[in-house]
Amino acid sequence: MLKKLILIQLFLFVSFCVVAQIPSLSQEQLRQVQIDNLSDDQIRQLVAEMKRNNIAFSQIDQYAQQKGIPSSEAAKLKNRIQQLNLDKELDSKSESTSKQKDQYNNREIEDATDEQSIDAKTSEERKQDMRKKKIFGSDLFSNKNLTFEPNLRMATPPNYRLAANDEVIIDVYGYSEVQHTLKVTPDGYIRIPNLGPVYVNGLTMEEAKNRITKQLSSIYGGIKSGNTYVQVSLGSIRSIRVLLIGEIERPGSYTIPSLATVANALYVSGGPNENGSFRNIQVIRNGQSIVTFDLYDFLANGDLTNNIVLQDQDIVKINPYKTRVELSGEIKRPAIFEAKDNETLQNILNYAGGYTDVSFRDNIKAYRVNNKEREVINISAAEVAGFKLKSGDQFFVDSILNRFSNRVTITGAVFHPGNYALESNMTVGALIGKADGVKEVASLSRGIIRRLQADFTPAIINFNVQDAIAGKQNLLLQKEDSVVIFSKLELREEYQVKITGEVNQAGYFNYADSMRLEDLILLAGGLKDAASLNQVEVSRRIRTGAYDPNDTMKAIIQRFDISADLKSNPEAGAFVLQPFDEITIRKSPTYSEQANVQVDGEVVYPGLYTINTKRERISQLIQRTGGLRPEAYPEGAVLLRKTFINSGDSALLTNKLEVFYNKLKDSSDIERVKGTVERKEQLLGINLEQIMAKPGSKYDLLLEEGDVIKIPKKLQTVQMFGEVYFPKKVRFDKKYTFREYVSGAGGFTTSALRRRSYIVYANGEVKNTRKVLFFNSYPKVKPGAEIYVPSKKEKKGLSGQEAIGFASGLASVALIIVTLLDKIK
Prior knowledge:
Keywords: Cell outer membrane, Ion transport, Lipoprotein, Membrane, Palmitate, Polysaccharide transport, Porin, Signal, Sugar transport, Transmembrane, Transmembrane beta strand, Transport
Shape: extended
Membrane topology: Multi-pass membrane protein
Protein name: SLBB domain-containing protein
Strand order of the largest sheet: 9-8-12-10-11
Subcellular location: Cell outer membrane
InterPro entries: Poly_export, Poly_export_N, SLBB_dom, Soluble_ligand-bd
Number of domains: 8
Helix content: 25-40%
């Protein structure tokens, strides 16, 4: 029995959450809900039901207040949902629907982001949608931020009339205090305890208060004496049914709150359709039209006078429009407007917000459809106020011309360029004066006027700027003239000088008159430490002179000596630079920067050393390190040397290798060579034993900057790579030969290329296998050596088709030979 009661309670609360679908549920049943008696599974079932009906977590309190559910039970439900972490799930859009439900009228609004429904529309339907959007006022019913939801918390209107299912709250206070919350029965009565039924159906709140107070005075004597007071207010309101018909998006019968108005009902039904009137909306009550609602009064003036509160069984009828005109062009709200019989074009312009700032108001073009054909009508500004409208008229307001009636322009080397007003008999000199005169760099010999002729073709008129300023040349200006004053700096190539070599900031610098050599060196940040003070070279362009075919001179070269403090000597001080001169500061021939090399490994003092002389060799460097340690292995010493020193060496090496790359056929070889260059250093095999035994010999190389000499300890292993069955590292034994080391690794594989085997010694030296008669002579193995056995290249046999083609070719050749032999016989 308890389980059955819990299920009934669950059903009641779910009914409360979806009460819009079950309006017949009584208020008393909803008050009996007990959340504490529901299990966690039942709460989950309740949340799932709420999700299917698009009930959000934040809407529970609102539904509870509207339907009389105790707020304590609603709070308990929210706590239970939060404890089960279902609140976020409830607020998310878990259902795969593209529709949202309004909170008070169950209106379904198609989601504007539903791309599938948009794609499913035909082109004709899309055109209709676009036309509907152009109708003035249609966006009122498609705007999601504007719901027209009635305010259920406002004070009860004085003209509100009570009816069945309204909740009346009676509050008696004073000497006697009591409160009653009573529901109006279907017969129109409220039953007051200890008093009996009181008929209130059809009464306003003021009339109902008077009647209830009169009835209560019979049991509360203090009411007549003035010691007890009665207050009557409206609690939960009833729902009413209204019928929406005519040219409407979704005609039908709707259940709405009893405080809903005409605008609320229109929003519920989606508003007028494409043929519906926005200005002739009738409210029919008891078979008679009681009011006509005009939406334009609200849109244009904010007037909701005829937006009356609807009553049960009212009919809202939207009639077809009679007159619609379209207004476009330079107006503030282009749209399709509906007009009444007595309205003119001026009224439509007012609805459109009037003209824009750039509109041409003297003439409005109208396109009208007559009985047989179309016609164009010109409407002057004086005719707008009285112009009668005809349905289908299209009005276009053009924009003013993008030109000026009195504009002249001056640009270039003046202090205030820009547009100026053309005055009577204005000359070029007067316009220059209004621009505050010409700049010092202005070219005074010639200026130009760009003018549009009578047929609007361009023309150029030249004038002497200096004469125009002095008043000697009085050229009259016309509208749209553009005066250009040129700058001498803009009429020539930009003057620069260049300095390169041993200066701190080499590059190009702007030329200035009377610039000297030392001035440019200062602008370049001064000399570097390596700069030579002698033989500073200046090269100059050849600009003048008669043409001589035998003259091979390309530039003028001058050389000067300068001082360290850049004090001008007489010769250099008298030499003035010219535009485009190029100065070169060379490096001193006696200047030399330190060059360092690195010694690592088994020497007494390893580390970084500076090369002492240009002829210092490896043996001398080893002596400076204190000599080799006893455990050093000189046969394994290597020298790492840079592939290139500077960018010039890099470019030279790259150019040399391009030819080599093109000759290589194996891409792996190409990548190997490229990788060697990119490492920027290469391994150079040296024979340190010979170097130390014979200093200065051919083995004793001269040192270069960046060299790294590595001297390892005595090595005791041999490493094998390639086509052996078990490549590994083994202990060195001087008794073993090459083949014995390979045998210790399992021997050669079937794909081993024995005659190409080679050894890389610890110092980088490489020795390969030689052919002696019919036998392979393998190189000697030393400590730290690496044995490499390459593989044979795969031999590709003929495919089936190639074999058939080859056989066919041989057969053809054989047939030709036989035929020739027969002919010879």
